[in-house]
Design goal:
- By secondary structure, the protein is an all-beta fold.
- The protein has a single domain (9-115), classed as Sandwich (Jelly Rolls), CATH 2.60.120.10.
- Helix content is 0%, strand content 46%.
- The protein contains no helices and ten strands.
- The protein has strands at residues 14-18, 21-27, 32-38, 43-47, 52-59, 62-66, 69-73, 78-81, 87-91, 96-103.
- The strands form two sheets. A six-stranded antiparallel beta sheet has the order 1-2-3-10-5-8, with no helix packed on it. A four-stranded antiparallel beta sheet has the order 4-9-6-7, with no helix packed on it.
- The radius of gyration is 15 Å and the shape is globular.
């Protein structure tokens, strides 16, 4: 079965979870990576999910709140959100890009050409 070792952005499925947010998804055996692009002044409402999330800001800046603690994040800053922890963000005046990793893999995100050779996570995996 073919395996994904490299992918160009054009090969990855795109998600639009809300206005002002686009993501490119890469699935692996034990994690999902999403490169998110945020429009200026986008607000990601507080939410939680039952997978761990961690990431790094690549460009732009944002205010992020995790479990009630707010921080201003700029390029190079990283964060970690434990499973089932409330978190949200507010993008400032410039567009931002954040690379997020979710573990275990997110089964609720689409699989595209670039990930067709990778089996879907097992039945016990949760989004």
């Amino acid at each position: 079965m073919p395996r994904l070792f490299y992918a160009s952005p054009r090969d990855l499925p795109v998600i639009d979870p809300q206005p002002g947010v686009k993501g490119r998804v890469v699935h692996a055996d034990h994690a999902t990576l999403v490169v998110y692009d945020y429009a200026p002044k986008t607000i990601v409402e507080t939410h939680k999910h039952d997978v761990e999330q961690f990431g790094v800001v690549v460009k732009g800046s944002l205010a992020m709140v995790i479990a009630g603690e707010q921080r201003i994040l700029t390029p190079g800053d990283s964060f970690r959100v434990p499973p089932n922890t409330a978190h949200g963000a507010r993008i400032f005046e410039e567009a931002a890009q954040v690379v997020d990793v979710f573990a275990p893999p997110r089964r609720d995100l689409p699989r595209g050409r670039a990930t067709e050779g990778i089996p879907a996570p097992g039945p016990g995996a949760k989004p």
